[in-house]
Amino acid sequence: MKKSFFAVALLLLVSGLNAVSFDQNTLKVNFQAYKTEQMVGVPGEFKNVKYKFSKNTGDLASYLKGAKAIIKPSDAFMGEDNDIITENVVKVFFPALLGNSDIKVSFEEVIMGENKGVISAKITMDRKSVMVPLTYTIENNKFEAKGQFDLHTFKNASKALKALSDVAPGHGGISWPLVDITFSANIIQ
Q: What's the rounded Cα separation, in Å, for the pair 44 and 78?
Protein backbone atom coordinates (compact mmCIF):
# COMPACT_ATOMS: atom_id res chain seq x y z
CA MET A 1 0.00 0.00 0.00
CA LYS A 2 2.79 2.38 0.96
CA LYS A 3 4.66 1.59 -2.28
CA SER A 4 1.54 2.24 -4.34
CA PHE A 5 1.04 5.62 -2.70
CA PHE A 6 4.63 6.67 -3.41
CA ALA A 7 4.41 5.39 -7.00
CA VAL A 8 1.24 7.42 -7.62
CA ALA A 9 2.78 10.50 -5.95
CA LEU A 10 5.93 10.16 -8.08
CA LEU A 11 3.85 9.71 -11.24
CA LEU A 12 1.84 12.87 -10.46
CA LEU A 13 5.03 14.81 -9.75
CA VAL A 14 6.67 13.72 -13.00
CA SER A 15 3.55 14.37 -15.10
CA GLY A 16 3.23 17.79 -13.44
CA LEU A 17 6.76 18.65 -14.53
CA ASN A 18 5.70 18.27 -18.17
CA ALA A 19 2.69 20.57 -17.82
CA VAL A 20 2.48 23.40 -20.36
CA SER A 21 0.39 26.56 -20.25
CA PHE A 22 0.59 30.24 -21.13
CA ASP A 23 1.35 33.11 -18.79
CA GLN A 24 -2.06 34.79 -18.97
CA ASN A 25 -0.51 38.25 -18.51
CA THR A 26 1.50 37.91 -21.73
CA LEU A 27 -1.25 36.79 -24.15
CA LYS A 28 -1.49 39.10 -27.18
CA VAL A 29 -3.40 39.22 -30.45
CA ASN A 30 -1.74 41.60 -32.91
CA PHE A 31 -2.60 42.30 -36.51
CA GLN A 32 -1.22 44.23 -39.43
CA ALA A 33 -3.42 45.65 -42.14
CA TYR A 34 -2.20 47.40 -45.28
CA LYS A 35 -2.88 50.73 -46.98
CA THR A 36 -1.74 52.82 -49.99
CA GLU A 37 -0.45 51.68 -53.38
CA GLN A 38 2.87 50.81 -51.72
CA MET A 39 1.04 48.41 -49.34
CA VAL A 40 2.32 50.12 -46.19
CA GLY A 41 1.69 48.08 -43.04
CA VAL A 42 -0.46 49.45 -40.23
CA PRO A 43 0.02 47.49 -36.99
CA GLY A 44 -2.62 47.08 -34.33
CA GLU A 45 -3.57 45.00 -31.31
CA PHE A 46 -6.77 43.71 -29.74
CA LYS A 47 -6.96 44.49 -26.03
CA ASN A 48 -9.12 42.61 -23.48
CA VAL A 49 -9.49 39.39 -25.50
CA LYS A 50 -11.41 36.64 -23.67
CA TYR A 51 -9.47 33.35 -23.88
CA LYS A 52 -10.38 29.78 -22.97
CA PHE A 53 -7.74 27.04 -23.15
CA SER A 54 -7.93 23.32 -22.56
CA LYS A 55 -7.43 22.06 -19.03
CA ASN A 56 -5.20 19.37 -20.58
CA THR A 57 -1.71 20.78 -20.05
CA GLY A 58 0.16 17.55 -20.80
CA ASP A 59 1.68 19.02 -23.95
CA LEU A 60 1.29 22.14 -26.06
CA ALA A 61 -0.87 20.50 -28.75
CA SER A 62 -3.36 19.25 -26.14
CA TYR A 63 -3.41 22.63 -24.43
CA LEU A 64 -4.06 24.49 -27.70
CA LYS A 65 -6.56 22.15 -29.36
CA GLY A 66 -10.04 23.51 -28.83
CA ALA A 67 -8.79 26.83 -27.43
CA LYS A 68 -11.15 29.72 -28.06
CA ALA A 69 -10.99 33.51 -28.10
CA ILE A 70 -13.67 36.16 -28.31
CA ILE A 71 -12.50 39.51 -29.63
CA LYS A 72 -14.54 42.68 -29.41
CA PRO A 73 -13.78 44.89 -32.44
CA SER A 74 -14.20 47.95 -30.21
CA ASP A 75 -11.06 46.80 -28.36
CA ALA A 76 -8.82 47.39 -31.40
CA PHE A 77 -5.89 49.64 -30.54
CA MET A 78 -3.72 51.11 -33.27
CA GLY A 79 -0.93 52.40 -31.02
CA GLU A 80 0.03 55.40 -28.95
CA ASP A 81 -0.71 58.76 -30.58
CA ASN A 82 -2.88 57.05 -33.22
CA ASP A 83 -6.29 57.97 -31.80
CA ILE A 84 -7.68 58.96 -35.21
CA ILE A 85 -6.59 55.66 -36.76
CA THR A 86 -8.08 53.71 -33.84
CA GLU A 87 -11.33 55.67 -34.15
CA ASN A 88 -11.53 55.00 -37.90
CA VAL A 89 -10.97 51.28 -37.38
CA VAL A 90 -13.35 50.96 -34.41
CA LYS A 91 -16.13 53.32 -35.54
CA VAL A 92 -16.04 53.00 -39.34
CA PHE A 93 -14.32 49.81 -40.51
CA PHE A 94 -15.52 47.19 -38.01
CA PRO A 95 -19.18 48.31 -37.88
CA ALA A 96 -19.30 48.19 -41.69
CA LEU A 97 -17.68 44.74 -41.69
CA LEU A 98 -19.40 43.11 -38.71
CA GLY A 99 -22.28 45.23 -37.48
CA ASN A 100 -22.36 44.53 -33.74
CA SER A 101 -20.79 41.05 -33.94
CA ASP A 102 -17.66 39.90 -32.16
CA ILE A 103 -14.78 38.03 -33.79
CA LYS A 104 -14.55 34.41 -32.64
CA VAL A 105 -11.47 32.24 -33.01
CA SER A 106 -11.08 28.55 -32.25
CA PHE A 107 -8.05 26.32 -32.68
CA GLU A 108 -9.43 23.26 -34.46
CA GLU A 109 -6.29 21.20 -35.08
CA VAL A 110 -2.69 21.43 -33.91
CA ILE A 111 0.35 19.75 -35.46
CA MET A 112 3.33 19.89 -33.12
CA GLY A 113 6.95 19.52 -34.16
CA GLU A 114 10.12 20.43 -32.32
CA ASN A 115 9.65 24.09 -31.31
CA LYS A 116 7.38 24.69 -34.30
CA GLY A 117 4.04 23.62 -35.63
CA VAL A 118 0.81 24.52 -37.36
CA ILE A 119 -2.56 25.48 -35.92
CA SER A 120 -5.74 25.32 -38.01
CA ALA A 121 -7.58 28.36 -36.67
CA LYS A 122 -11.25 28.91 -37.45
CA ILE A 123 -12.03 32.63 -37.56
CA THR A 124 -15.71 33.56 -37.48
CA MET A 125 -16.98 37.02 -38.33
CA ASP A 126 -20.64 37.88 -38.93
CA ARG A 127 -21.64 34.16 -38.93
CA LYS A 128 -19.11 33.27 -41.65
CA SER A 129 -16.13 31.09 -40.78
CA VAL A 130 -12.82 30.64 -42.55
CA MET A 131 -9.91 28.34 -41.70
CA VAL A 132 -6.57 30.10 -41.41
CA PRO A 133 -3.31 28.18 -40.95
CA LEU A 134 -1.09 29.68 -38.28
CA THR A 135 2.53 28.58 -38.19
CA TYR A 136 4.05 28.79 -34.77
CA THR A 137 7.53 28.83 -33.30
CA ILE A 138 8.83 28.58 -29.76
CA GLU A 139 12.04 30.31 -28.81
CA ASN A 140 13.23 31.03 -25.25
CA ASN A 141 9.80 29.97 -23.91
CA LYS A 142 8.11 32.55 -26.15
CA PHE A 143 5.27 31.17 -28.31
CA GLU A 144 4.38 33.02 -31.52
CA ALA A 145 1.82 31.93 -34.13
CA LYS A 146 1.42 33.85 -37.40
CA GLY A 147 -0.95 33.69 -40.33
CA GLN A 148 -2.63 35.77 -42.99
CA PHE A 149 -6.19 35.91 -44.27
CA ASP A 150 -8.17 37.69 -46.93
CA LEU A 151 -11.03 39.88 -45.73
CA HIS A 152 -12.82 39.35 -49.05
CA THR A 153 -13.89 35.99 -47.64
CA PHE A 154 -16.46 37.95 -45.62
CA LYS A 155 -19.50 39.47 -47.33
CA ASN A 156 -19.16 43.10 -46.17
CA ALA A 157 -15.39 43.38 -46.67
CA SER A 158 -15.43 45.50 -49.84
CA LYS A 159 -17.91 47.93 -48.27
CA ALA A 160 -15.88 48.14 -45.03
CA LEU A 161 -12.55 48.63 -46.83
CA LYS A 162 -14.03 51.37 -49.02
CA ALA A 163 -15.56 53.10 -45.97
CA LEU A 164 -12.16 53.04 -44.25
CA SER A 165 -10.38 54.39 -47.33
CA ASP A 166 -12.97 57.18 -47.62
CA VAL A 167 -12.45 58.45 -44.03
CA ALA A 168 -8.68 57.91 -43.92
CA PRO A 169 -6.87 60.23 -46.34
CA GLY A 170 -3.58 58.51 -45.47
CA HIS A 171 -4.79 55.40 -47.30
CA GLY A 172 -4.59 57.09 -50.68
CA GLY A 173 -7.88 55.45 -51.64
CA ILE A 174 -6.60 51.90 -51.02
CA SER A 175 -7.20 49.63 -48.04
CA TRP A 176 -5.89 46.13 -48.80
CA PRO A 177 -7.93 43.03 -47.90
CA LEU A 178 -4.96 41.05 -46.56
CA VAL A 179 -4.47 40.99 -42.80
CA ASP A 180 -1.54 39.41 -40.94
CA ILE A 181 -2.39 38.06 -37.51
CA THR A 182 -0.09 37.11 -34.65
CA PHE A 183 -0.93 35.33 -31.41
CA SER A 184 1.84 35.30 -28.82
CA ALA A 185 2.44 34.40 -25.19
CA ASN A 186 5.12 33.28 -22.78
CA ILE A 187 5.08 29.57 -21.98
CA ILE A 188 5.01 28.31 -18.41
CA GLN A 189 6.37 24.80 -17.93
A: 4
CA 24 to chain centre: 14
The count of other CB atoms within 10 Å of the CB of residue 67 is 19
Looking at the DSSP bridge assignments, the partners of residue 147 are 181
Is the pTM value of this prediction over 0.85?
yes
Of the pLDDT bands very low, low, confident and very high (cuts 50, 70, 90), residue 2 is: low
Lowest mean pLDDT among 11-15, 118-122, 132-136, 147-151: 11-15
Q: Supply φ then ψ for residue 101, to 5 degrees.
A: -75, 155
For 131, residues 6+ apart whose C-beta sits below 8 A from its C-beta are 108, 120, 121, 122, 123
Tell which residue, 52, 28, 38, 32, has the closest CA to residue 148: 32
Distance CA 135, CA 184 (A): 12
31 vs 133: CA distance, rounded Å: 15
pLDDT digits (tens, 9 = 90+) for 81-107: 999 999 999 999 999 999 999 999 999
Which residues neighbour 184 within 8 Å (Cβ) at sequence distance 6 or greater?
Answer: 26, 27, 28, 30, 142, 143, 144, 145
Return phi, psi of residue 151, to 5°. Answer: -60, -25
